[in-house]
Amino acid sequence: MTLLVTVFAAAITTAIWYKKQPDSSMKLGILSWMFWGASLMWLIDAIFEYAEIGAEYFTPALKDMANDLFLGLSVVALALIIWIVILLIWDPKDVIKAKLLKKKEK
Amino acid sequence: MACFLVPMTEAIVATIAQKVIKKKEKKAGVHAVTSADGFEYEKTPFSKKLGWLNKLLWGGSALLAFEHVWHGEVVPYFPFLTAAGDPADAAEMLHEMGTAGVCMAAIVTVVWIGMLLVAKSLEKRALKALPTVR
Q1: CB A33 to CB B55 under 8 A?
Q2: B38 is in which domain, residue-wise?
Q3: Chain A residue numbers touching B70 (CB-CB < 8 A)
Q4: I need a labelling partner for B44 at 20 to 30 A (CA). Which of A22, B97, B103, B120 fits?
């Protein structure tokens, strides 16, 4: 479930990133890379688990599924926080800079 | 248990390599192609392409590290990895790093190499489509 949530997040952010091109001021690429990297790593995790427990992997208990979904959503939330922090520090549209340094005409 | 440490280590090495290559590329200068319509086209430098790998590795291992915190395998106090406290668990952890961890780093690298090949062919196609390259 965590893998599934991350893959959906990766696909959605990539589609939005593509639609917004060539405007990359929202730095959506960072979010996209993060989700794809995690998806690939969790894919390996899933393959190892499948090799260990077999077809049972596809019929998880409801409690495990709910916990994995909770984890997946938490991962998405963490990635969004990382992205927002990077975006605000990078400040590609100079929004923060403009807030901190107010321009005044003489 | 600590499989994310393997791609994270690769990320550290790749980040250092990217910095070194970027410096070298700056010294060497930009190789641009001028088309007949007067526009200049620059190929994506390798350091930027290495940046793709870095973002995949750093992003993936950061989110995976969070999963390990979630499962109580990484703790904010010494020895930070719960499995490191017990020799039997430590052996299992090292085995997991050697199998799942290495596979994670490998799959990300293989996907990145695939992206390099696709990018190269797209660049070639785009250059061919330019109005008579000078």
Answers
A1: yes
A2: 5-128
A3: 71, 74
A4: B103
With CA atoms as reference, the chain A residue closest to B68 would be A71
Q: ipTM value of the model? A: 0.88
Question: Which helix (H) or strand (E) element contains residue A100?
Answer: helix A95-100
Q: What is the pLDDT of residues A19-68, one digit of tens each?
A: 999 988 899 999 999 999 999 999 999 999 999 999 888 999 999 999 99
A29/B7 CB distance under 8 A: no
Total domains in chain B come to: 1
Local structure of B87: helix, strand or coil = helix
For residue B102, is it within any domain? yes
Residue B133 located in a structural domain: no
- B134 belongs to a structural domain: no
Per-residue pLDDT tens over the stretch B112-128: 999 999 999 998 888 88
